[in-house]
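call fold target=DUF3307 domain-containing protein
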Amino acid sequence: MSILFLKLLLAHFIGDFVLQPKSWVKKRKDHILYLLIHIAMHTMLLVLFFIPELSDQWQIILFISCVHLLIDSAKIYFEKKFPRRTFLLFIADQTLHILSLVAVVWYTYGLPVNWETLFSAKSLLYVLAFVLTVFVSPIMLRVFFSKWTSEADVVNKPKNSLVDAGMLIGIMERLLIVLFIQVGFLSGIGFLLGAKSIFRFGDLTNAKDTKFTEYILVGTLASFVIGIAIGYGLRLGLKYLV
């Protein structure tokens, strides 16, 4: 079972990332030929990986090739419709591809699902911590800062910042904080705070604006407080509820 999945996964990553030039990715949006060449490349890779048992596995190769074509076609369609959602579409695309491979392995061998483990207190606590860190905390911070967003000098200060970059940085730093707390690497939190302070030092120095400086400092500390609270909440939950 593991050999089958590893073969499928390796063929997928080689076909999608090694043997697909950047020019093909751009051109296939307007010329279907490049998409078909990409699918043919995937099919040949699968044939190569399954040569010893080709007579038994040709259905798998055909299924994966067809599903890959459907997923990539859908991605191209949505890229044209939502050109600024490239990263989300990339994640969705790769997730669907990998799920299709899992489905093949599941159909071929069957994957026993232990529902008690899947919905155990430990699993639910990890999922809860992830949801709080990635989805709930940004909204909490947005609401927390809503009373200051009307101040023009604060809102208009980061004119050259990337779209949603601050939110993504905050999510990643809180994920790291939660991880550091779980593995007992508390000094990593200090390192993270120090690193962020160094990178922000230039902005704060050049800004020469007390309100903007306070805005950044409050945001950083609030993000860290939430991350630490979630991290220790998860740790205590795993200790006393599991």
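return ok
Residues 124 and 131 are 10 Å apart (CA to CA). The longest helix spans residues 210-240.
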